[in-house]
Amino acid sequence: MTVSNLKVSIITICHNNENDIRDTIESVKNQSYDNIEYIIVDGASSDKTLKIVNEYAEFIDKIISEPDDGIYDAINKGIINSKGDIFGLIHAGDQLFDKDVIQKIVNNFEENNIDASYGHSVIIKSNGTIIRVNKSPEYNKSLFKIGWMPSHQSIYLKRDLIEKFGLYRTDLGGSGDYEFVLRYFYFNKIRVKRLDEFILKFAIGGTSTSNYHKIFSAQRLQVKCWAINGEKPPFYMVPLKLSRKVVQFTMALWFNLTKKYETE
Questions:
Q1: How far apart, in whole angstroms, are the C-alpha atoms of residue 107 and residue 193?
Q2: Is-contact 111 227, C-beta < 8 A?
Q3: What is the pLDDT of residues 15-54, one digit of tens each?
Q4: pTM: predicted TM-score of the whole model, two decimal places
Q5: Angle at the Cα of 114 (from 109 to 115), degrees rounded to 5?
Q6: Residues whose CB is less than 8 angstroms from the CB of residue 29 and which lie 6 or more positions away in sequence, other chains included
Q7: Which helix (H) or strand (E) element contains residue 223?
Q8: How many CA atoms lie within 13 A of 252 on its CB side?
Q9: In sequence order, what are the residues at sequence separation of 6 or more whose Cβ sits closer than 8 angstroms to the Cβ of residue 210?
């Protein structure tokens, strides 16, 4: 398969995001790579979100608007309706980091013959100020034991893996993404390669960060995610996972002062 033939499905979930859905769509629309299938799953928004989405109807391959059973149910709908060779997520309010992100992801798949790609991310305020940086290390399965997980929306997967390992669980509250990534990356053998690039900008207060204040309570659920898959995490995992947040905030301060992220 050549680079030009690799179809990338990008899924955006949204619900009452009239203030920020346009920026998300534009970040996909402006990609330099053109073999993209774009799917938007709207949870029956009651504001102007769907009106804005429909303004881009010629660009969007499929628009689904109906009630759902939460974030992960909506993501599953998008995956089920996708037809690409690989797929990834960009939630409403968040943005792909620059116009060449998808091209770089495709290159990573083609050059390294992999099943999954991931990269770096930043969390930003509405004024663009970076408040947290998640710079991911080279892949090593054992990193999960010390509290590491790649940024969820930086991950792109071969779509045919879904048939082997399944969709997102919808019964784990806000930890459905953690269990999904843990199941794929740790409990199953897939070929993974980090892309040493920034993949996305998370919007503070958006779908991706709205439960940020619940970091501590989420740890109990994440321990459960290990148990679901038949293993108990090491006792030091949770403390180390929480300590990583301090490092990420420090990196954010550094990047805001130096603007180094713009050239990496």
A1: 11
A2: no
A3: 999 999 999 999 999 999 999 999 999 999 999 999 999 9
A4: 0.85
A5: 105
A6: 38, 56, 59
A7: helix 215-228
A8: 20
A9: none
Neighbours of 130 (CB within 10 A): 18
pLDDT in tens, 89-107: 999 999 999 999 999 999 9
How far is 184 from 233, CA to CA, in rounded Å? 16
Residues contacting residue 165 through CB under 8 Å, at least 6 positions apart:
183, 184, 188
Mean pLDDT by 10 residues, the chain (264 residues): 75 96 97 97 97 97 96 98 97 96 98 97 82 89 90 96 97 93 96 97 63 59 90 75 56 56 42
Residues in the chain: 264
Inter-helix orientation angle 176-185/215-228, to 10°: 40
Amino acid at 219: Q
Residue 37 CA: distances (Å) to CA of 11, 18, 27, 155: 9, 22, 14, 16
Phi, psi of 259, deg, nearest 5? 60, 25
